Amino acid sequence: MPGLTRHPDCNALDPGSEAGVTRSLRQCKMKKRFRSNGSALLLVLVAVAIILVLMAVQMRTLFIPQGASPLPTGIEHYPWRLDEFLVAEGETIKLPRSPKPTLDEAVSLNAAVSRDGLPRGNVSITFGTDGRIQAAWESQYESSGKSHTITAEMTGNIVVKKTYTDDNGKDKSRLFLVAKGRYQKQAMSAETTSSPEKGDAWLSGWLKPDLTAEGHISIGQNTDWTAVYDLITAD
């Protein structure tokens, strides 16, 4: 019988008969095919896993802007999303009907601003009968041995289509407000005066039927970070 060639995937060949050799070769081929199919299946599973991870990352970026850390769900923590509610100058703003405040007359109010329970000045907000808003914020406070000053002026509008919702359900009597502008923050000490920090400022909140308001002021220089301040008027 001719010399037998050992297949690289075979442990041994049966030299007892031609049928044995044929059977051994067939088994070797089956083993090789099985290993090949197993390797291909493993590659497919790895590829699917990679695709699922990439899809998860992509979905996450739809809700958390690039470069930002995971944040609470409140839009005030990523206020650039408020820009879609701003109505361009010259465009008509839809006016509210009862039970929302109807703004038949101009409304002006002042709200106290705070951060982490510490006072941070006051913001004045004026609502025009056309639905336009003007706001100005001033804050002076002491922290870490320095005197800090923040000023901001913002303009914007009411948004009738948004409805207030909390754990108790919907409250259609509240009127959403949004405004945007620029802020400047500066720190001073007895020895030095820092260069002013400048960036975007957003105002967002809700006007109640009794003409009191609550909401937030958000400031930041980019989408990597945002400082959020609370505002509320006296009842």
Strand-pairing-aware structural class: alpha+beta
Rg to the nearest angstrom? 33 Å
Average of the residue pLDDT scores? 83
pLDDT under 50 segments (min length 5)? 60-72
Basic shape? extended
Instruction: Assess the beta-strand content as a share of residues.
Output: 35-45%
CATH topology of the largest domain: Porin
- How many strands? 10
What is the topology, as strand order, of the major beta sheet? 1-2-3-4-7-8-9-10
Instruction: Report the end-to-end length measured between terminal Cα atoms.
Output: 106 Å
Q: Would you give an account of this structure?
A:
This protein folds into 2 domains: 1-63, no CATH class; 75-232, Porin (Beta Barrel), CATH 2.40.160. The longest helix has 46 residues, at 18-63. Mean pLDDT is 83; it is low at 60-72. It is of the alpha+beta class. The chain contains 1 helix and 10 strands; from the N terminus they run H-E-E-E-E-E-E-E-E-E-E. An 8-stranded antiparallel beta barrel has the order 1-2-3-4-7-8-9-10. The protein has a two-stranded antiparallel ribbon with strand order 5-6. Helix content is 20%, strand content 40%. A hairpin with a 2-residue loop joins strand 1 (107-115) and strand 2. The protein is extended.
